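Comment thread on ticket #2218

A.B. wrote:
> Attaching the input chain for the structure job we discussed in standup.
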Amino acid sequence: MMQVKLSFINPELREAPYTIITVRTEMRKRDKPSFDLNPLKNHTLTQSLLGALLLAPIILIFEEQNLLIVASLGSTIFVVLAIPSSKSARARNVLSGHFIGLSVGSISSLITIPIMPAVIAVGITMSLMIITRTAHAPATGTALALSGSTIISFQLASGFLIVLALIAIIHQVGKPYLRDLV
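C.D. wrote:
> Ran it. Output below, let me know if you need it in another format.
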């Protein structure tokens, strides 16, 4: 608590020319600045390095030709490691959301009308994730990436799901240590 003096003259009051009022200045937990100069204190450096280490082998596995898929996996890593307590970071949402995106994106790639595969893939993926309560925003990126692919191999799909399973396992194992950074 802090006291602030406000000076004013009131002819009706024959008291002192100022009144003391108490102003509440305590910061609530949500008002605290989210940026801390000590990155080890709030796990920022540790969780960011873990994310980078997870992404490095993914880039090697999927190589340059599948950078859109790598982008959706990078977004998933961010959600899982930076906001681990969110519903979107749950293993169920990560795996189911990307499976829906993978399936819908692959099927929509068969449509030959320009632009339509991407539009349909994103729309249907969003709808199915909402209906199944497995919302995971990066999964729409997966659908979008695969809607433009002409060849979707079994190796790509299985490798993608294995990587997602590893991300989900790391999230589950690391739950006691991971903190919300955002």
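A.B. wrote:
> Thanks. Noting for the ticket: Residues 44-174 form one domain.
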